[in-house]
Amino acid sequence: MALADVTTAFLRRVRPTGPAVFNLQSTCRYASSNTSPADAADLSSSPFQDSSACTPSEKITAFDPAARARALRKRGGRLPPSRYQYRPPRYDRGPLHPHQPPPPSDPASRLFEAGPFSLPRLEQTYHDTLASDFMTLSYTHFPPGESAHQKGARLRPWEGESPYYANRALRGPRGGDVLRLLRKPITFNNIPQLQGITVHSMVKGAVEDSAHLHVAGMVLQAITNVRAEAHATRKAVAAFGVRKDQHVSVTCDLKGEDMYHFLSKCVDVVLPKIKDWKGVKGSSGDSSGNIAFGLTSEDVALFPEIEVNYDMYPPKMIPGCHVIVHTTARDDRDARLLLSQIGLPFYGKFIN
Amino acid sequence: MNAGQNSARRIVASANPFIRDTVCISCRHRLTSSSSRRHAATAAATAQSSAPPSPPPSSTNSTHVPPVTTTNAIQKAYAVLAAPILSRPPLLTRELTSFEKAYYLYQKRLNERLALPFSRYFYYKKGTPGDEIWKRQVKSRKAAAKDIGVYSGYGDEAWNDEVLVGSKLAEPDEIIKALIKDAEGKSVVEDKAEAEEAEEKSQEEVAKEEMNKITIEKPMSRLTEADTTNNTKSLNRKLDRSLYLLIKNKDGRWRFPEDRVYGRENLHQAAERILVQSCGINMNTWLVGNHPVGHYIYNFPPPSKKSALPAGPNGGRLSTVQPNAMVPTSLTAGPKDVEEFGEKLFFMKGRIMAGQVELAKNEFGDQDFAWLSKDEIQQYVTERYWSSVRNVLADR
């Protein structure tokens, strides 16, 4: 391509389309939604805000990009490659490579995942109601001059005459090598919240017939809106008839919007329909703020997504599952308080 | 640093019961009980600063009691009041901003491009009416999603995923309309052929269709009758906001329901009692936690000769506190004379589950009540009151 062609092509792009259109665009807001009064209240007054002046010109309303592209193709032309035919590189060849992939948030990226698609009701309730209530409930009052009890250091120094003890990393706590999470007083910036949900199903029947695993995957996908992941056994167990590397379980990891939708679906729709359900066991939890409960196959069949076409699932293949709720609480007591605020009842002895 | 602690301790240790009543029960209990719970460092610091001539503490965890000066001079005393802030949390989700609406629609269309195709055979058996309806609808709207308008995520024109100027596709009303149309078995897009068919139909056919028509219940409006009439007494108003109970007291001031704390009751008990005495028992309420969420201090103006209220020897306001019938500990103590310099109001957080205020059962002579959202409260209360309450109230 000659240099002259390049410059004309470049100039054509740079040249403004016309003063009238330009002015209209700069002062009007064109969107697929109305401006809500709340938006207007947040903004200072500007010509952009005045939507009454925005009656799109005929040229704008008549604009149909698809028809334009069709006509262009008929004439033998192509869509501008910069915008419509960009393919990101297949591999990330490092920061020094001239051809860099776009960030994952870019719709053109190969890693792009669409979403979120809604603002879940439970999320809104958490931020407006539950979080502030939690802070009020967990407040501990110390009169002037008093302070919270400070525990001693949990790691012990190495005491002895051995020269190898100098500068050695500290010893773990007495009576076990697990350092449990420390609970800090709840303030506005560490109110526990939901972090994620793992829905897990180990399918016994999958040892004999993999069809069970496929159905379990479909069921979990349907109720969670997340692609199910199959897991293989790590060890062979002769007593269960399990060989090594056999796929027997599926999990779904939920985050964000899916997590909120799933939990509110459980709390509002599924759990109230279970007969004689006592609640989540009070002893459930891993003592660091994650709480699990189980659903039988009859309970899973109560999910609206399964109920709507129950007949399409092979009989007696709908699996039960474990639901593990991960919270940012540092101990089970706080996690239980959060979940009971959301609406999960607990029964029995509470163990932290 | 230790001034507050010392004064609190002095009040607790003093023999005057009137002064003792100005410290809340739980704090008094903590201060009078052994100080083993106190941080060792604080105890040492107190010992150094308050009693320099005393010998140094033998061990860091020794119980340190600061010297108590028993003075007969009356301390500044305030009337302690409790005020439950009763709220109805939002029942509906908030209205989305225009940006959020547009963003969600665009993400839905992008998802249509990236998602695997809908597996029709899994959801609809071949030859069933559901299958036929599905095929017809998908033909017209091109995509599996029902609320994104006519758009295909596959093929030559998948790039055309942006909505044109003036389209109202992202509006919730439009989405509801599309979903209802879909549930009724009609196609989302109005076909010209279909419209012509409808015109050509005889009356019998139309009547027959009317008989077989599926009617889908439409979602209720976000606005209720109370919204249109702006009925501030109703709890059905402003369903997407928190509403707070405000009461017009006998002086004509709008405030949260409030009353003095009597006898040995604590703030939580007082708040529960105040709700019963000011609004009747026809309310199912829950007080969130035992601690106040905010406070308001009001100093009485210095007594002048013109004022009818009797002034005390220290320049405070003299009055007699009559016992409250609902607090047994105050009944046994009987009426007591107090000299007060102002009032301290502690706000307790409460939620209403069911019921409504019955002003006829009010024992404080209150005149009126209203359920108001945060921004409305600002217009009802005084500026000073608002500044102590504004951060307690939820934004939504």
TrEMBL record, chain A:
<feature type="compositionally biased region" description="Low complexity">
    <location>
        <begin position="78"/>
        <end position="88"/>
    </location>
</feature>
<feature type="region of interest" description="Disordered">
    <location>
        <begin position="73"/>
        <end position="111"/>
    </location>
</feature>
<keyword id="KW-0687">Ribonucleoprotein</keyword>
<dbReference type="InterPro" id="IPR022803">
    <property type="entry name" value="Ribosomal_uL5_dom_sf"/>
</dbReference>
<comment type="similarity">
    <text>Belongs to the universal ribosomal protein uL5 family.</text>
</comment>
<protein>
    <recommendedName>
        <fullName>Large ribosomal subunit protein uL5m</fullName>
    </recommendedName>
</protein>
<dbReference type="GO" id="GO:0005840">
    <property type="term" value="C:ribosome"/>
</dbReference>
<keyword id="KW-0689">Ribosomal protein</keyword>
<feature type="compositionally biased region" description="Low complexity">
    <location>
        <begin position="36"/>
        <end position="47"/>
    </location>
</feature>
<dbReference type="InterPro" id="IPR031309">
    <property type="entry name" value="Ribosomal_uL5_C"/>
</dbReference>
<dbReference type="GO" id="GO:1990904">
    <property type="term" value="C:ribonucleoprotein complex"/>
</dbReference>
<dbReference type="InterPro" id="IPR031310">
    <property type="entry name" value="Ribosomal_uL5_N"/>
</dbReference>
<feature type="domain" description="Large ribosomal subunit protein uL5 N-terminal">
    <location>
        <begin position="190"/>
        <end position="243"/>
    </location>
</feature>
<dbReference type="GO" id="GO:0003735">
    <property type="term" value="F:structural constituent of ribosome"/>
</dbReference>
<feature type="domain" description="Large ribosomal subunit protein uL5 C-terminal">
    <location>
        <begin position="248"/>
        <end position="346"/>
    </location>
</feature>
<feature type="region of interest" description="Disordered">
    <location>
        <begin position="33"/>
        <end position="59"/>
    </location>
</feature>
<dbReference type="GO" id="GO:0006412">
    <property type="term" value="P:translation"/>
</dbReference>
<dbReference type="Pfam" id="PF00281">
    <property type="entry name" value="Ribosomal_L5"/>
</dbReference>
<dbReference type="Pfam" id="PF00673">
    <property type="entry name" value="Ribosomal_L5_C"/>
</dbReference>
<dbReference type="InterPro" id="IPR002132">
    <property type="entry name" value="Ribosomal_uL5"/>
</dbReference>
TrEMBL record, chain B:
<keyword id="KW-0687">Ribonucleoprotein</keyword>
<feature type="compositionally biased region" description="Low complexity">
    <location>
        <begin position="41"/>
        <end position="51"/>
    </location>
</feature>
<dbReference type="InterPro" id="IPR021757">
    <property type="entry name" value="Ribosomal_mL46_N"/>
</dbReference>
<dbReference type="Pfam" id="PF11788">
    <property type="entry name" value="MRP-L46"/>
</dbReference>
<feature type="domain" description="Large ribosomal subunit protein mL46 N-terminal">
    <location>
        <begin position="79"/>
        <end position="227"/>
    </location>
</feature>
<comment type="similarity">
    <text>Belongs to the mitochondrion-specific ribosomal protein mL46 family.</text>
</comment>
<protein>
    <recommendedName>
        <fullName>Large ribosomal subunit protein mL46</fullName>
    </recommendedName>
</protein>
<keyword id="KW-0809">Transit peptide</keyword>
<keyword id="KW-0689">Ribosomal protein</keyword>
<dbReference type="InterPro" id="IPR040008">
    <property type="entry name" value="Ribosomal_mL46"/>
</dbReference>
<dbReference type="GO" id="GO:0005762">
    <property type="term" value="C:mitochondrial large ribosomal subunit"/>
</dbReference>
<dbReference type="GO" id="GO:0003735">
    <property type="term" value="F:structural constituent of ribosome"/>
</dbReference>
<dbReference type="InterPro" id="IPR015797">
    <property type="entry name" value="NUDIX_hydrolase-like_dom_sf"/>
</dbReference>
<keyword id="KW-0496">Mitochondrion</keyword>
<feature type="region of interest" description="Disordered">
    <location>
        <begin position="36"/>
        <end position="67"/>
    </location>
</feature>
<feature type="compositionally biased region" description="Basic and acidic residues">
    <location>
        <begin position="200"/>
        <end position="220"/>
    </location>
</feature>
<feature type="region of interest" description="Disordered">
    <location>
        <begin position="194"/>
        <end position="229"/>
    </location>
</feature>
<dbReference type="InterPro" id="IPR033650">
    <property type="entry name" value="Ribosomal_mL46_NUDIX"/>
</dbReference>
